[in-house]
Amino acid sequence: MARNIEGDPNDFTVTDGPNNAQYKDKQHDSSDFVLPYGDHENDGIVQVSFTLPVEKGALAEEAARQIMRTMGLEEPVVSESSYLSEGFTFFVGYGKLKRPIQISKLKVARPMWDLLEPTEVDKMIKERLGRPLIVVGAATGNDAHTVGLDAILNYKGFAGDHGLEAYSSFRVINMGSQVPNEVLVAKAREVRADAILVSQVVTQRNVHISNLTNLVELLEAEGLRDKVILIAGGPRITHALALELGYDAGFGAGTKPQDVASYLAQEVLKRKSLY
Amino acid sequence: MLKLNLDTDKINRCHELAQSITSKVNQELVPYGTVAIERTVTRFMGVDGVDEEGVPLPNVFINELANRGKVNDGAALYLANACVELGMTPQQICEMVAARSLDITNLPWHGADVVRAKARELCEESLALVKANRKKRESMLEDMPVTETPWLYVICATGNALEDAVQAKMAAAQGADVIAVIRSTGQSLLDYVPHGITTEGFGGTYATRENFKLMRAALDEESEKLGRYVRLVNYCSGLCMPEIAFMGAVERLDMMLNDAMYGILFRDINMERTLVDQNFSRMINAYAGIIINTGEDNYLTTADAFDAGPSVLASQFMNYHFARNAGLNDGLIGLGHAFEIDPFIQDSISYELSMALMVRQIFPDCPIKYMPPTVHKKGDIFFSHVLDSSFNLVSNLTGQTIHLVGMLTEAIHTPLIQDRYIAISSACYMRNAAKNLGQNLEITSDGLVQKRAASILDETCDFLEHVDEKGLFAAIGEGAFAGVKRYRTGGRGREGVFMKSLSYFNPVEEALLEELF
After folding, report:
1. CA-closest candidate to residue A135, choices A183, A193, A182, A191
2. Contact B188 A144 (CB under 8 A)
3. What ipTM, to 2 d.p.?
4. Which chain A residue lies closest to B342 (C-alpha atoms)?
5. Phi, psi for residue B154 in degrees, rounded to 5
6. Closest-CA residue to B180 (of B278, B255, B290)
7. A176·B203 Cβ contact <8 A
């Protein structure tokens, strides 16, 4: 789940070290060096499946094994090759990864806000701000998908976690799908929104990127950018991507309404020096 | 054999109520026309192509009429009169209008009888083509029969029509009986139909007449190879319902997604616009022998599927009667529903089975379309695959007709070619493995499955009583369907609705009414 982070989440530094021989010498330190676990510790077993544009046969299987070697898999085994159609073969394969990664050298996304219970959020906003937060949400551009947006905003919520509408501390305006950025900005101005939630599901040919960038430009042109907390959400959104595009936060797959509510409450109060 | 004990009086009452609700709406909307219908008439008269700026000529012509305040007489009279006066084809007339070298409303009038006769004549070719396509489909189905049910329905959505054709043929060879090309996201809100073969789309491929033609040719070729007719599907929804229906009819599509209320509820299209357009588009589909697919799955994905049972059934009754009112026979009414109940609810499969069997039993002659789980699929493709397998089992047990094959990567990306292969293979396995299982089982009279169906039917009946009393427009206004509130004067596309004049004439409607009723 993408919460706020410290450092660059893309910076998963794979250590140069230990090759396999060295690794064996460091058995005592095994918890710091990890390999995929299949049937026993450090066997490095990985399963893969992919299609090659090659006619099914011995040549295709050899091609699949070579492809697996390019992935860094040793002892590649093709367990299944299926005829997809003329000139296309689907493979399931297994191989062994030999080069471990060192856990202590990794930098990972880490939340910079606390996950609060809904009652805590309501109480905190009521006591410190004295009015509900106004949140405008929309799936923008051509995007017709509102499942994610609805899950976060609508009363019903998602997986037993109620949406922002269920909080007394949020006033929610859910504009639905296919909302032009201009209309969203106008609405945010009209209701004096504290936060804007943008949902982008369709990502074909990176249409979501230009859409998200365009919204930031519009808000800046209208002098609204600093007045709102701007959040992007969707299955292909990461916090790092959102920051890069000029958003305050990004929420990816698996986000629950409570995550968004907790973040919003703390962020608004921080900005007003009330937290 | 699996059979629910359903209250026949209740079912009859639901039919009565749905008939009352839908015919009141149809009656109330008789005086209204839409620009989309007039563009469709223009297309029936042979007009195609775009102007210098890429605007489709039917739009150019209807916009011109609307600007001159004449659209409420209908397109046919002006177009036919101009053809008589100038001795030209409708295409030539529209090209002149596009070049601004002709004032279509200011030509000498040749009298209603002459002009109407000319208008009828100008539609004949298209009408004959649609009829020939229907015959051709029938004869192809005889030569290359589809012997297994449910028909396996898969989606291609690369955005590129040429690539779709390759993937569609591949899917057909793997066992798919029906290929749907998802439209580029947002097309439903375009008030025109794009033109030409398109290779760029978002989340799908633009529906254009040329793309339809290309796909039809590809699937015909594959059908011949397989000895099994492969059906082609597109979307007859949004602001251009009747125009897409025309294109599907002339390019021999076999199914169209075509829901009476979907546009209102889920795309915020104006009520009058949608309800008038759906009626005309369904008349075209009926004439073309095209199976419509309704979109009740949307109720299940936007609300909690466990609670949404009655709204699905109520919508099916209404879609059914709207369809009957438009001249579709039962064999062309593909009512939709879906397997979307939270899989972690105890006995979720029993509830799914109950609903699926009930829909099957209440509409015995309709090709019911069953859609796979989507909402409860996440990134675990292995679990998604198991869930699809449960769906496949219920579908086969309950004798569904059109089976939308679920994808294990549903929540992740548009299907990769191996995803489609894996999904089709497992659906084929279940279709064979559970072939006669349903015939050999019975529903206990006091069990969960029976009780669940009875209670949904009761609630559906109460719900329809309420809608009938309120009227459909008011019921939608209070959020009776999917909790979405819409108003008669709101929504997109209302500017394209007009009151027909006393001299209004629509030769296509006239011909279809004669054929269908």
Report:
1. A193
2. yes
3. 0.85
4. A159
5. -125, 165
6. B255
7. no
pTM: 0.85
**Helix orientation angle between B35-44 and B507-516, rounded to the nearest 10 degrees:** 80
B297 tagged catalytic = yes
How far CA B517 is from CA of A18, B28, B327, B393, in Å, comes to 81, 20, 7, 39
* Residue B500 appears among annotated catalytic residues: no
Q: Which of A199, A133, A253, A231 is nearest to B412 (CA)?
A: A253
Cβ-based contacts of B482 with chain A (< 8 Å):
none
Q: What is the pLDDT along chain B (517 residues), one digit of tens a residue?
A: 899 999 999 999 999 999 999 999 999 999 999 999 999 999 999 999 999 999 999 999 999 999 999 999 999 999 999 999 999 999 999 999 999 999 999 999 999 999 999 999 999 999 999 999 999 999 999 999 999 999 999 998 788 999 999 999 999 999 999 999 998 877 888 899 999 999 988 778 999 999 999 999 999 999 999 999 999 999 999 999 999 999 999 999 999 999 999 999 888 899 999 999 999 999 999 999 999 999 999 888 877 889 999 999 999 999 999 999 999 999 999 999 999 999 999 999 999 999 999 999 999 999 999 999 998 998 899 999 999 999 999 999 999 999 999 999 987 888 899 999 999 999 999 999 999 999 999 999 999 999 999 999 999 999 999 999 999 999 999 988 887 888 999 888 999 999 999 999 999 999 999 999 9
Sole residue written with tokens 């299944």:
A80
Which run of H or E residues covers position B77? helix B75-86
DSSP letter (8 states) at residue B229: P
Catalytic: which of B262, B287, B299, B320?
B262
β-pairing, A88-97 with A45-52? antiparallel
Structural element, H or E, at residue B334: strand B333-334
Rounded CA gap, B292 and B269, in Å? 20
DSSP states along B149-169: SSEEEEEE--S-HHHHHHHHH
- Interface contact A49-B200, CB threshold 8 A: no
Compute the nearest-CA separation of B203 from chain A (Å): 6
Which residues on chain B are in Cβ contact (under 8 Å) with A49? 418
Pick the residue of A49, A81, A85 with the most B CBs within 10 A to test the interface with B by mutation. Answer: A85
Cis peptide before B150 (omega within 30 of 0): yes
A56 to chain B: which residues are within 8 Å by CB? none
Q: Provide, as residue numbers in chain A, all residues whose Cβ is less than 8 Å from the Cβ of B379.
A: 253
Q: Using CA atoms, how far apart are residues A272 and A270, in angstroms rounded to an integer?
A: 5
> Nearest C-alpha of chain A: how many angstroms from B418?
6
B201 → chain A, closest CA residue: A204
Contact assessment for residue B453 and residue B6, using Cβ atoms and an 8 Å cutoff: yes
Interface of A with B (CB under 8 A): 49-51, 82, 84-85, 88, 90, 141-144, 146-147, 150, 156, 176-178, 202, 204-205, 207, 235, 253-254
DSSP one-letter code for B74: -
